[in-house]
Design brief:
By secondary structure, the protein is mainly alpha-helical. It is about 80% helix and about 0% strand.
């Protein structure tokens, strides 16, 4: 499948101004974003790699939020950082695609919903543990966009 439209800037560029893309790139983006989502079945090692990569990519953002701004202990920061990812990542990785495939939802719509769900659920969890709202929103949204962008570049 195409390497076009895998990262936030590429999708934004496609949605906002297709005239800026070559005809081939626009066609590939459209094809990818309109493709129905397929349920995911991967070996445990591959999921572990992807989950670990997500945690690593988001580490700096969560460290700033939890240790720098919220002043949590190192142990509480690590537990919360791991916990929010443990909550959202399997839902986005397995449950979301399974449900989307049952209803014929396109990849573009699924990605949009997933990239709203993940940060929103993580913000709610962090605020439940008394993180400040504005820094939580900024850093968690940045962390999720960054991990999506970098993850798409690596995989």
């Amino acid at each position: 499948m195409s390497r076009y439209c895998n990262t936030p800037p590429e999708i934004f560029r496609f949605v906002s101004d297709t005239a800026d893309l070559s005809e081939e790139a626009a066609l590939r983006c459209n094809l990818l974003l309109e493709t129905p989502v397929q349920a995911v079945s991967v070996p445990a090692w591959q999921y572990g790699r992807d989950f670990g990569a997500t945690c690593v990519f988001e580490a700096v953002f969560f460290w700033l939020l939890l240790r720098g701004i919220s002043r949590f202990s190192c142990g509480k920061s690590l537990a919360l950082w791991f916990g929010v990812n443990l909550f959202s990542h399997p839902l986005i990785y397995f449950a979301g695609p399974w449900a989307a495939s049952k209803f014929g939802i396109s990849y573009g719509n699924y990605v949009g919903a997933a990239e709203i769900f993940a940060p929103l659920s993580e913000i709610i969890i962090c605020c439940f543990f008394r993180c400040r709202l504005v820094p939580s929103v900024m850093l968690i949204v940045a962390a999720n966009l960054f991990s999506w962008w970098i993850g798409a570049a690596f995989y």
